[in-house]
Prior knowledge:
Number of strands: 36
Shape: globular
Strand content: 25-35%
Number of helices: 16
Structural class: alpha+beta
Amino acid sequence: MSRQFWxxxxxxxxxxxxxxxxxxxxxxxxxxxxxQTCQVCETWQVxxxxxxxxSYSRVLSNDYFYCEILKTMQYSKLHQQTLSPFExxxxxxxxxxxxxxxxxxxNHIIAPAVFVSDKPLIELYHYGLTPVMNSVATVEQNMEVxxxxxxxxxxxxxxNIKKPTTEILIxxxxxxxxxHCQLLLEINDQDSLVATAKLDGTKVQxxxxxxxxxxxxxxxxxxxxxxxxxxxxxGANTLFLWLEAKFENKQGLANYxxxxxxxxxxxxxxxxxxxxxxxxxxxxxxLDSIIKQIYPHWELIINGxxxxxxNYPATTKFIPKSADILKAITGEYVIIMPSNDLLTEDAxxxxxEWLNDDVDMLYSDEDRFDTEDLFDEPYFKPxxxxxxxxxxxxxxxxGVYKTKLLQHLQDVASQFSGHHIQHIPKVLYHRRRQTVxxxxxxxxxxxxxxxxxxxxxxxxxxxxxxxxxxxxxxPLVSIIIPTKDKPDIxxxxxxxxxxxxxxxxxxxxxxxxxxxxxxxLQLFEKYKTNCKIFSCDTPFNFSKLVNYxxxxxxxxxxxxxxxxxxxxxxxxxxxxxxxxxxxPEIAAVGCKLLYPxxxxxxxxxxxxxxxxxxxxxxxxxxxxxxxxxxxxxxVSNYSAIxxxxxxxKRNLWGAGFDENLSIAFNDVDFCLRLLxxxxxxxxxxxxxxxxxxxxxxxxxxxxxxxxxxQQEEDYMRQRWGTIxxxxxxxxxxxxxxxxxxxxxxxxxYYCHDYEKxxxx
Length: 760
């Protein structure tokens, strides 16, 4: 064995030794949570050209275990070339051991993930994290961890201000020392700076909510915050920002380990696929991933000049960047990719199996990588979703296009939406982490909206394209609210409509299901002037009440609203929903519903198959969270939307809710019938309501209610068994046990070794 090999092997063994130490400390911590003592692990430092690792962990209290790991592993090309193939294989095995023990383990802790990025701006909401702001997290629901504010780093998060304020409280820690550094807080409204606040580090109270006094008052609005400390240095001036994370919000990162499927098919087709590489960095690694393809029928075109130090396949074509590259394509399908990224070995094989005369475009799932064999952040995508694609071009890579069609299109992104697009639910593409993501151009989305001629407008908010549609005319909106007694709940709902709604052409239809309380009857008398009240005194059947209310209404637009909802805003929330409801291809329009107790998400679209029949996406995610790959921040498509707040055109109402489904799943069944007709449903992130869930009927906690629920579940499985097994707006690699978009244990990408490690 060479000397270089032994040096590298010793470094990796030290790293694995550290990983074992962290794991053992965590397991000890979980077994001895009653201990109040603060334990500090050893600090490891390993130096080698371009390699530096430092890590420590500590038990901060009886509830929290904190780890930090900063790592960079970059082997120079010279050193790689000095190793024999056998030595490289041994090192690869050692690095895989480190990946499964350390990298995946630390992702479970959540907090260290913020430090993976070497960029100065760290967007906390990407990790489901927010600073602890004037609140104390409960151990049952939240995890609270302190993270050092590092020199040169900027922490960014979303903030929703509900009442005007001139100060913000953020929990900070000093590590029991006096800090002479300064803190700067900046509040932005979209791209404009609206307020700032400075805090002297010597005045920071340890583990307390510290007051940031703003130079300008903030009105009720949605903001982006940035906190920076230019002169901290991890030594004498170290400040801790306390972060809060929901246990349920894992962003789908945990338990991931990329591996090729064990049962790869034998190539049965000979369709020629052209791969066009746009030359940037890492060209040789990209070429190597193409040369390793199991599927043999491909041609390669380099969009640029030939380089002397690159090993190209012998048949490679070189086309100057100024030339019309589409004319050089001879394959039936084409892939365009930057040289920074990699194809999986089975990428073209999987693509070939999906190709047929009807397919115009294919796309796949993808993940991220730092170095070869170290993969994470898998993005398991839905099938083609029109509004999602217009908001963020989520199809990304791998994109495979029919050549004849591509040669006739001026703009791929804006004009492929009307063609047959297929999704391969497998990771076939590795995106290099260090490359800068390209924002989906606003003008591209606007061009799509202009081409469909419905007046759609796109705005850029937090790097997402938010779509809106103007209202045609002033249609009457009929708001249908079934109710029975509980006058305080009903009055809260109706008062929020009257006080927060700027749209005036509406009627409120109250369907009373046999109220008997005197206070309720007095409330009805009060509402007679601005509401229509109809009695439907039958045994409770939600579908029948809703259908009766629609029958009594006169509006061109129907809005179903539970009596236990409360409008948050914005004031034009009805206009936002009406614009989408009037679109000829859109059926149900929903919004984001929040739990009032903790401002977390109750509903942001329904996913079939979760928890049996259906359940809410992103349940218990923080309201500031962007969700699974920004899905909470954009106009998103789902198979179904809750009837607690559902808008639809009257001409699509048809037979309405199925009265065989008296309590549950009637809204789901209704949406699936419309989906089956080729229409689509949307959830608008900009419209929010509180949902005081189950306050009116109570929980399903009696034997009679549970028996009825089981009967309705069986009814749904018999009618919609196929879509309940595979929701097109979800992904078969994601869990059906929870609403948090983590990876299913049935997925080939699920890391069973990692699960075993944490359960030992």
